[in-house]
Design brief:
By secondary structure, this protein is mainly α. The protein contains eight helices and no strands. The chain has two domains: 34 residues; 216 residues, no CATH class. The N and C termini lie far apart (76 Å).
Length: 282
């Protein structure tokens, strides 16, 4: 019996090793496939961006669609931008203000709030908001057209979908998001000033708050934030339109495309935020 058990153990170890090798090969193959899909999507996004750039001289022909998309983005987002920016400024002042006042740095509260909003929070938070609100709508609209063969009908009529659908949306969001970010910065500063004035741990008057902000925040800081928002807008537009054009299947495929558009946009916004910040610091 002991001899049988001794002969059985090597067999079990060989079977376990074989199963483990199969599992590792399957995982490696899956990672290889996923990496291939990822790089393929990146290539398609870059190609769509390049084709949109080539079509840019034709934007005047699509000016009515650009205006329609621009006003839709503004009307859909202005109230949310105002609310979100006001409370972001208030939260920043509420978190950092009392600590700075305790250390006799009350004159730095306005500058800290101003820099945080202008350079980082306003462009990133507004880009994430627009990715969820507008990017999802772009992906859903173009995805529906792709599923129900409306884009094929455009090609049959010799109408380029990139010029007709993608170009107006990217131009509109590229103009609208920087303007929303400028508005967001101003509202955020106002929210921070109001909290700094009304909070009994700070009690910094409006005039002193904005005077300190003016001493520390420069025009280039605001310009950097607006430039970031323009880059984020292009990312949102290209990614959302690409996911819409790549939609397959029925309503479930549209839902998957919308989810991918929002998630991919947010991930790229965070990655490019670091890269742009590093570039603008030089």
């Amino acid at each position: 019996m002991n001899d049988f058990g001794g002969r059985l153990k090597p067999v079990l170890w060989r079977q376990l090793g074989t199963q483990l090798k199969i599992y590792i090969d399957w995982k490696a193959n899956r990672v290889y496939v996923l990496c291939g899909i990822m790089f393929e999507n990146i290539g398609d996004i870059v190609l769509l961006f390049w084709r949109t750039l080539l079509a840019l001289p034709l934007v005047w022909r699509q000016r009515q669609k650009v205006f329609d998309q621009f006003f839709e983005i503004g009307n859909a987002s202005l109230l949310m931008v105002c609310t979100l920016s006001f409370f972001i400024g208030g939260v920043i002042a509420l978190n950092f203000g009392p600590a700075l006042v305790e250390r006799s740095l009350a004159n730095a509260v306005g500058g800290v709030v101003g820099l945080a909003i202008a350079k980082e929070l306003a462009p990133v938070m507004m880009a994430i908001l627009i990715a969820g609100r507008i990017g999802s709508a772009m992906a859903a609209e173009i995805g529906s057209m792709q599923v129900y063969q409306e884009i094929d009908a455009l090609r049959t009529m010799n109408i380029n979908p990139i010029q007709y659908l993608v170009l107006p949306r990217i131009v509109a969001i590229g103009v609208a998001l920087p303007l929303l970010v400028v508005f967001s910065i101003l509202v955020g500063w106002f929210g921070g000033a109001m909290v700094a004035d009304l909070n009994n741990q700070m009690e910094i008057p409006f005039k002193a708050f904005f005077s300190d902000l003016k001493d520390l925040v420069e025009l280039k800081d605001v310009v950097n934030g607006v430039f970031k928002s323009f880059c984020f807008a292009i990312i949102i537009g290209v990614v959302s339109c690409h996911q819409g054009l790549a939609t397959i299947g029925g309503p479930r495929g549209i839902g998957r495309s919308v989810t991918k558009a929002v998630v991919n946009s947010i991930v790229l916004i965070v990655i490019f935020d670091y890269l742009l910040t590093r570039f603008l610091m030089k």
